[in-house]
Amino acid sequence: MAKNRRAPSTAAPLDPRTPAERPADAARRLRDATDSRLAQTRRFRSVQLKALERLLAENDEALCAALAADLGKPDAESRLTELDRIKAEIDHAQLHLGDWVADRHVRVPVSLQPATARVQARPLGMVLVIAPWNYPVLLLLGPLVGALAAGNTVVLKPSELAPATSALLARLVPAYLDRRAVAVVEGGAETTTELLGQSWDHIFYTGGERVGRIVAHAAAEQLTPATLELGGKSPAVVCDGNVAAIARRIAHGKFMNAGQTCVAPDYVLAVGAQVADELERQLPKVIASFYGKDPAASRDYGRIVNDAHFARIASYQQQGRVVSGGSNDAATRYIEPTVLADVDPQAPVMTEEIFGPVLPIVRVDRFDDAVRFINSRPSPLSAYLFSERPRLHTAFEDQVRAGGIGHNVCNMHLAVPDLPFGGVGASGMGNYHGKWGFDTFSQQRPVLSKTAMIDTLRAVYPPFGWAKRRIMRSIG
Ligand code: NAD
User: Fold this and answer.
1) Which residue of 138, 139, 159, 309 sits with most ligand 1 atoms within 8 Å of its CB, as the best mutation to test the pocket?
2) Active site residues
3) Which atom of ligand 1 lies at the shortest distance from residue 207's CA?
4) Structural domains in the chain?
5) Mind listing the pLDDT tens digit for each residue in 61-118?
6) What is the DSSP string of 439-461?
């Protein structure tokens, strides 16, 4: 097997007959590589990150085409929200890998001196990454960056609901990365169940809460640590500011990828009638300025992933007063960007994660009411506040429980590699991106080193007479 071989260019077609990986075979192969510590060397990690960079650069068009086939994603959006994000993660990891892998020396208490103490970041071993369909490249290869940087072997399980992307990655990954250390296993629930039955050193899952519980259960059975990147209803609280600009920021965060974004503002809490009225005036104008009079004809607007999700989202379009949009087309799984008002807080559109291009506006009288509303529900993945008042920013940070916070901006906190990304409570556990990803896939191992040539520990050996007790208590 060629190790770290040069990747083929896109001009050379990849072998379409690459056999499908089976869970047990992939796990066995990677366990061998893990046991031989293949992926641990600094050089191996760097070479794999470079290969991943080349995979993205040389297959940009093919990846955009697969994303368009699966989700009707516009190429510009695919690059901006998926491919460029992975490249940024790779660049960041390459730049900082030397610091991340270096041992961190810590102070040794007087009672243990002379000695040195270090914290080592050690690879966890063999990692399973399970990805969803909404950002099927980013959410599969993004975690891979951290896992490879940390020196692990990795099995990737793409979502079966993005079949073109899944098939493409199943061909590309083995063509560019070392097959001994990285594998792609395609399939649905049955395959994932089989994968979960293998022995892992870490499971990294992104997706909905229901499957998150299944993954957590399977991980617990084997005492395997798991990261769960889940979703939820991320609120956007609008208090004050330039409402036209606020409407643009909310609409951009909401309607990209046709609303199928885990951190998208799920609903708006408009504080005060004036703000709510102005948002109702501005949002339809913004939607028209982004996607034209007929968003169905816009090249910049996506489609819903499958019929089941289409039916679910279409039913939300009727659960309030339609401020903007409201139409759909089952044949093309098109849902018009829709803004609703006067929604019932107990209606499905306000109790289920929308995960589509429907934006309810809920009116509240005061900032405190908005905070109470958010905290009375499961903790969201993100919470956004639109206000120019620093006092409210502080109050929002102090009082709202959410995976991440954005002030006057939606979705973009996840584009800062030095910020951790993850949920809390119902929106998940653990985090990644940048060093946070490296740490998620590493064990922080303590190492204490002394010499035994001179026995400096005599004071702690029994019997504990008066003099020893005094010495031990004085040096701590
Ligand atoms: P999905 O249906 O693609 O499922 C995710 C993975 O679970 C897939 O690989 C799938 O094969 C597997 N799976 C499905 N059923 C299974 C079963 N019964 N047993 C074992 N595995 C199974 O994705 P989804 O759940 O529809 O994704 C949407 C959800 O993901 C939303 O809630 C969204 O907010 C969340 N999400 C979170 C993030 C994040 O970064 N936190 C990102 C994207 C999506």
Assistant:
1) 159
2) 229, 262
3) 30
4) 23-230+429-444 (3.40.605.10), 235-417 (3.40.309.10)
5) 999 999 999 999 999 999 999 999 999 999 999 999 999 999 999 999 988 999 999 9
6) HHTEEEEEEEE--SSS-TTGGGS
